[in-house]
Design goal:
Protein name: Sugar kinase
Structural class: alpha/beta
Distance between the termini: 21 Å
Number of helices: 14
Strand content: 15-25%
InterPro entries: Carb_kinase_PfkB-like, PfkB_dom, Ribokinase-like
Biased composition (Low complexity): 385-406
Largest sheet: 6 strands, mixed
Keywords: Kinase, Transferase
Shape: globular
Helix content: 25-40%
Number of strands: 20
Region (Disordered): 182-202, 367-422
Mean pLDDT: 81
Strand order of the largest sheet: 8-9-10-11-12-13
């Protein structure tokens, strides 16, 4: 989607915003852009309108190095847009953060992306990479989109590793049954995998079913409680035992990965459980961190890193998003990210990152008994890394992946010290 955010990051409702800055947003496209910027080959599969906003969206995503050759233009439906204020996105349960929640207003009913279905998106295209990244946002757009996500998560020969970010959005599910594509063509309400009108319009059961069909699942501890009434990482894993890898994000505290059959697991079919604490960052804008975390973890997966390494790269990507305005941020250079990810546990816990660290950080030092600070000074650009690959069919929705795989949208006068929120 095309995203409009207040030109001045001041708190307050949308009704009081006088001017907006235009950008791009979409969970899957965010991940695709981050992976491409990190040196991976990424393809975004979607539909946009044959309009000026569609032109802007495709050009902006392509500028990150994402392959947009599979994006189709729809002459009969517009490109979706949304407006939002600064702040964090609410998930329906009280959280520990004191940051204000954002106000979001969507204009995507009848959009080109909401009309996607199995008839319009070929499985061969979506499965062309090593990883296919999907989110619950796309599934909530319409019955046709849900049928598409169900089709792409079917266990069939040739299916790549399928990654799924739950991304529970209550407002989207309210209109899912009657949205565009609900009655149109194969794979809609009358087709295989169609949305049964007896299912909850809020979508928790649908999201749980989709998560169980995937190989790698990301879910926030808060959204699991909001969607399913499940509290705690162990309880979430018990509710979702099917994915080989389950990553539970604890917001400011960190993230826990459950990996079945990994080295270190007590038994061949048991989980290895790895927790990595989040980093301390000087927050500029508390948006986009979840998509960035997913991109960092997927990047580590594509590179064959350890589970701890994948989690650390997820936190570093999230820190890049939190210390930059907007949903998308330049990821750290790979050599810098690798150096920071290789820190010892004590140094990792003392690391603090501020605005600009991804571009200028050349060293780090212990500035006190409980703090490691990244020093910033200009550096020479490094040689580009060898591209590696991810895909995703999706809408540019709010604030995602990649061909090495094949993949797919802050208040206050100054930055506030905070733990990374993912």
């Amino acid at each position: 989607m095309v995203a409009f955010r207040p030109a001045r990051p001041e708190p307050g409702p949308l009704a009081g915003v006088a001017s907006f800055d235009r950008g791009i947003g979409g969970a899957e496209s965010n991940v695709a852009c981050a992976l491409a910027a990190a040196g991976h080959r990424a393809k975004w599969v979607s539909r946009v309108g044959a309009d000026a906003f569609g032109d802007h969206l495709v050009a902006a995503i392509a500028a990150y190095g994402v392959d947009v050759s599979a994006v189709r233009r729809d002459a009969g439906r517009p490109t979706g847009v949304y407006f939002r204020t600064a702040g964090e996105r609410g998930v329906g349960v009280p959280g520990p953060s004191s940051a204000p929640l954002s106000e979001v207003l969507y204009y995507r009913a009848g959009s080109a992306a909401s009309a996607m279905s199995p008839a319009l998106v070929g499985r061969a295209t979506a499965w062309s990479g090593r990883i296919l990244h999907l989110t619950g946002i796309t599934a909530a757009l319409s019955a046709g989109c849900l049928a598409l996500v169900r089709d792409l998560t079917e266990h069939r020969p040739g299916r790549p590793l399928v990654s799924f970010d739950v991304n529970h959005r209550v407002a989207l599910w309210r209109d899912a049954l009657d949205g565009p594509g609900a009655h149109d063509g194969p794979g809609a309400l009358d087709g295989p995998g169609a949305l049964d009108r007896s299912e909850s319009p809020d979508g928790p059961a649908v999201l749980a079913d989709l998560a169980r069909r995937c190989d790698l699942v990301f879910v926030g501890e808060d959204e699991a409680e909001a969607a399913w009434g499940v509290r705690g990482a162990a309880a979430i894993r018990a509710a979702l035992p099917e994915p080989r890898v389950l990553v539970v994000k604890h917001g400011a505290a960190g993230a826990t990965a459950y990996v079945r059959g990994a080295v270190g697991a007590p038994e061949a079919d048991a989980d290895a459980v790895v927790f990595v604490p989040a980093l301390s960052v000087d927050v500029v804008a508390p948006v986009g961190a979840g998509d960035a975390f997913a991109a960092g973890f997927l990047s580590g997966t594509l590179r064959g890193l350890t589970v701890e390494g994948r989690l650390r790269h997820g936190h570093l990507m999230a820190a890049a998003a939190l210390t930059s305005p907007g949903d998308l941020a330049a990821p750290p250079r790979r050599d810098l990210a690798d150096r920071l990810a290789a820190l010892g546990a004590e140094e990792w816990g003392r690391l603090r990152l501020g605005p600009g660290w991804t571009e200028n950080a050349t060293a780090y030092q212990v500035a006190g008994p409980a703090r490691t600070t990244v020093l910033t000074e200009p550096t020479e650009p490094t040689e580009p890394t060898e591209p590696t690959e991810a895909t995703e069919p999706t809408e540019p929705t709010e604030p995602t992946e990649a061909p090495e795989s094949a993949g797919g949208t802050g208040p206050g006068p100054g930055p506030a010290a905070a733990k990374e929120r993912t």
